[in-house]
Structure formats: structure tokens, C-alpha cells
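Protocol step 4 of 6: structure prediction from sequence.
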Amino acid sequence: MKTKVYIAAALAGALLFAVGHLTATGGGMSRKTQENLSTAMHGEAFAHAKYLLYAKQAQRNGNAELASLFTKAANTERLQHFAEEAQLAGLVGNDADNLKDAIKGESYEVDTMYREFAEQAAAAGDKAAADRFEEVRHDEMAHRDAFKTALAKVETKPSAGR
């Protein structure tokens, strides 16, 4: 259950900033198409993560054939479906833009999403979930700070990664 809650929370946050990113990049597509691409990418990303967890469980149960099936499906979701949809959406930009987008997403997770999730779980008496959300929030802080450091380096290099 903890894993499902964490994955759902992470994907919810990712969806929010992906929709914002797609709307900002536009690419001449209708807003509805951009939203549909974002929703599709979320489905593919969630399926990838979920299928890898299923594969791990099947492996623990000694079912290598099932583990292989889940792993292959997971890889198709990420390496083919998600990648192709991301290409259409113009998700990836130059290094500086990618870092700025990552900082924006991590900041949302730190300042809003995981903070609120932890508070709500604590208020509901769900201590394990509240603790997990707070732990993940701190991990996201480290990601945000590392991205900020990397952005400063990218921005000091003449026309590198921009």
C-alpha cells in the first residue's frame, strides 16, 4: 500500500508540472492535445513503474517467466510509448530549460505537494504515510538543490547546453 500511495503521489505532482510544461512549450498543438499527451505520458510512466514492481514480486515468487513479461512490458511503456509521446509534446529542451523545468517540479513537490500530503496524512492519523511523504519531501529538496547547482554551472558556460 505504501508503494501505491507514493507512486500515485509522485505521478500526481509530475502530471501537474508536465501539463504546465507542455502548455508553455505548445508546439502549435491544441491545448486538448497537449493535455491528452500529458495524460498519456503519465499513464505510460505509471505503468512502467508498476510493471517493474510486479516483475520484482514475480521474481521473489520464483516466477521468472512472469517477471520477464512484466519487465518487457515496462520497457515498452517507457522506451517506446512514453519516449514517442514526449517527443511529440516537445518535453525535452536544452540543458538550462530542462534544469529550470526540473527545479520548478521539485519545488512544487517540496513546497506544496509533499508538505500538504504529509500534513493531511498526519491529521488523518496515517503516521506511516505522513512519515513517508516527509522523507520523500526531503529527498526532493536534495534533487532541487542539485539541479540548482547544475543550472548555475550550465549558465556560467558560454552557450553550453542552452
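Step 5 (inspection) to follow. The chain is about 85% helix and 0% strand.
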